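In the design runs reported in the main text, the only information available to the sequence generator was the tokenized backbone. The following block is the verbatim input for one such run; it is reproduced so that readers can re-run the procedure and compare outputs position by position.
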């Protein structure tokens, strides 16, 4: 069973994404409400993937991603960014970071698991 860490400062987004992935794909979900908490949980729990918001107070998604990439213990965990920014320049900037994918808010809870699975080459039973 894949384990996904969701990092987002918005309680509603964490809750909807968690329920979506648990019910549609039966994945194990861990959540964090900040970049710093997400890094701690990624180190401790070694998830199979991270779904992370771009805009967060304190440490934003791109900064959190760069911190994860610096540590050999978390560098190989694929990161998918979740953003409301759909401008081409933003998309290119995120893609240049080296993330696995960029998904857009608002996302469809019924297809979120499939989007993640398609990105990472996972099968959903």
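Verbatim output:
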């Amino acid at each position: 069973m894949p384990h996904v860490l969701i990092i987002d400062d918005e309680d509603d987004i964490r809750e909807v994404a968690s329920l979506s992935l648990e019910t549609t794909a039966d994945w194990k979900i861990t959540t964090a409400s900040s970049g710093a908490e997400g890094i701690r949980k990624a180190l401790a729990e070694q998830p199979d993937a991270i779904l992370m918001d771009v805009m967060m107070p304190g440490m934003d998604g791109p900064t959190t991603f760069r911190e994860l990439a610096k540590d050999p213990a978390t560098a190989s965990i694929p990161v998918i960014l979740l953003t409301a920014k759909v401008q081409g320049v933003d998309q290119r900037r995120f893609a240049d970071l080296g993330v696995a994918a960029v998904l857009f808010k608002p996302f469809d809870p019924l297809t979120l698991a499939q989007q993640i699975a398609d990105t990472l080459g996972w099968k959903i039973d």
